[in-house]
């Protein structure tokens, strides 16, 4: 058998690193500057077109977001969510036949209180993200994790889906035509009224943003949040709790501000890790909603994941080549060991396996595309006892009442 410390006296053949091909595989003219996969070498221009087209194609293929809808972009400061924000800017600013036609907003959940960051560190991270958000001229919301204690109980219930639009191609085309006609009518007004309206909306948005950013967070709120996370024993449970609280804050903000869609920046690599870790956590029945493109479990607010076709490698290349700034914010699992939690162990396993077998992430991701929930779709007529109190998913067990009461007791204590 081969041993780790066995000596071969230079008899093994040393293979050099693969070189980038001289020509781009798309345009066949320019010199390639990067390799995404084996044989896929792109030049700078073709890679940008490929990256933008993939984002637009994902939205166009699913046709979940209708023209004129308010869409909330959940930005954490990481590479994937910042890249998603950049793609939305690109799609709304370009004069192209397939221009994006929704109204974007941004939300950032400041969860530094859960990971033990000081108030100075949290303010510094918020200031860095605010500079990025202001450059977009979009309405943005800065929400602190401590505000979860003041959420209403309605956030634990699925809302009415009465505003849901038909998913047929004809109705989508009619909505696009109506939106274009409305914009043409608006452009016929005088330039003065347009400028006055834009300045009024800009001042109103900035006033609302300042009011939301400066919402008071007392040390008592932060201490209560830290006691909550200190009472959770394992890092696995802490990460799961943090994810649930984030979702509740995003959902509440979307409902109160009139957003009907929420964009999450989950990449293909992140969803592959999430799929395996959720199976380990016993969430196999809800994998279709946790990893799919659209998640309609909340009824009135639908979560979409337009970055699910991008690998972390593609996102890193794009951000580096086109100077897309990201903000590193320490989290619960920062500097944690591989075996500190189920999520961290799964991430380490998938990442190391991807290094030796480049098709690992894509194989897991393609498997998730074939998953469908076996439970009936959620609606307001479904009994409350048939849903989980925290994630609003249908319970995959006949002991619904027992688990519901167990979740209530766990949440109260």
From TrEMBL:
<comment type="pathway">
    <text>tRNA modification; 5-methoxycarbonylmethyl-2-thiouridine-tRNA biosynthesis.</text>
</comment>
<dbReference type="GO" id="GO:0016779">
    <property type="term" value="F:nucleotidyltransferase activity"/>
</dbReference>
<dbReference type="GO" id="GO:0016783">
    <property type="term" value="F:sulfurtransferase activity"/>
</dbReference>
<dbReference type="InterPro" id="IPR019407">
    <property type="entry name" value="CTU2"/>
</dbReference>
<dbReference type="Pfam" id="PF10288">
    <property type="entry name" value="CTU2"/>
</dbReference>
<keyword id="KW-0963">Cytoplasm</keyword>
<dbReference type="GO" id="GO:0032447">
    <property type="term" value="P:protein urmylation"/>
</dbReference>
<comment type="similarity">
    <text>Belongs to the CTU2/NCS2 family.</text>
</comment>
<dbReference type="GO" id="GO:0000049">
    <property type="term" value="F:tRNA binding"/>
</dbReference>
<protein>
    <recommendedName>
        <fullName>Cytoplasmic tRNA 2-thiolation protein 2</fullName>
    </recommendedName>
</protein>
<comment type="function">
    <text>Plays a central role in 2-thiolation of mcm(5)S(2)U at tRNA wobble positions of tRNA(Lys), tRNA(Glu) and tRNA(Gln). May act by forming a heterodimer with CTU1/ATPBD3 that ligates sulfur from thiocarboxylated URM1 onto the uridine of tRNAs at wobble position.</text>
</comment>
<keyword id="KW-0819">tRNA processing</keyword>
<dbReference type="GO" id="GO:0002143">
    <property type="term" value="P:tRNA wobble position uridine thiolation"/>
</dbReference>
<dbReference type="GO" id="GO:0005829">
    <property type="term" value="C:cytosol"/>
</dbReference>
<dbReference type="InterPro" id="IPR014729">
    <property type="entry name" value="Rossmann-like_a/b/a_fold"/>
</dbReference>
């Amino acid at each position: 058998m081969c041993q780790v410390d066995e000596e071969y006296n230079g008899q093994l053949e040393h293979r050099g690193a693969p070189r980038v091909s001289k020509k781009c595989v798309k345009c066949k003219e320019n010199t390639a500057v990067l390799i995404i996969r084996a044989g896929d070498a792109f030049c700078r221009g073709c890679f940008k077109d490929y990256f933008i087209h993939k984002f637009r194609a994902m939205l166009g293929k699913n046709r979940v977001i209708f023209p004129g809808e308010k869409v909330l972009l959940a930005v954490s400061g990481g590479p994937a969510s910042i890249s998603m924000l950049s793609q939305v800017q690109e799609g709304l600013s370009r004069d192209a036949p397939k221009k994006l036609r929704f109204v974007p907003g941004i939300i950032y959940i400041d969860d530094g209180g859960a990971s033990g960051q000081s108030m100075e560190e949290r303010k510094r991270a918020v200031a860095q993200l605010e500079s990025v958000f202001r450059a977009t001229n979009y309405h943005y919301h800065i929400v602190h994790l401590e505000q979860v204690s003041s959420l209403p109980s309605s956030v634990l219930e699925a809302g009415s889906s009465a505003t849901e639009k038909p998913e047929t191609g004809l109705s989508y085309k009619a909505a696009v035509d109506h939106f274009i006609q409305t914009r043409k009518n608006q452009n016929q007004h005088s330039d003065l009224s347009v400028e006055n309206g834009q300045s009024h909306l800009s001042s109103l948005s900035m006033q609302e943003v300042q009011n939301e950013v400066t919402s008071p967070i007392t040390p008592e709120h932060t201490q209560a949040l830290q006691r909550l996370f200190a009472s959770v024993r394992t890092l696995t449970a802490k990460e799961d709790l943090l994810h649930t609280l984030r979702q509740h804050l995003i959902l509440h903000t979307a409902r109160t501000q009139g957003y009907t869609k929420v964009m999450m920046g989950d990449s293909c690599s992140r969803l592959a890790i999430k799929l395996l870790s959720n199976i380990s956590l016993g969430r196999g029945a809800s994998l279709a909603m946790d990893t799919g493109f659209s998640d309609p479990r909340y009824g009135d607010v639908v979560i979409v994941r337009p970055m699910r076709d991008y690998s972390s490698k593609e996102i890193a290349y794009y951000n580096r080549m086109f100077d897309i700034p990201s903000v590193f914010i320490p989290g619960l699992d920062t500097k944690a060991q591989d075996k500190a939690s189920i999520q961290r162990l799964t991430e380490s396993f998938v990442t190391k396996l991807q290094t030796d077998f480049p098709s690992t992430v894509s194989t897991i991701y393609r498997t998730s595309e074939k998953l469908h929930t076996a439970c009936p779709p959620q609606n307001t007529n479904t009994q409350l006892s048939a849903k989980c109190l925290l994630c609003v998913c249908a319970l995959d067990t006949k002991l619904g009442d027992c688990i519901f009461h167990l979740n209530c007791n766990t949440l109260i204590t």
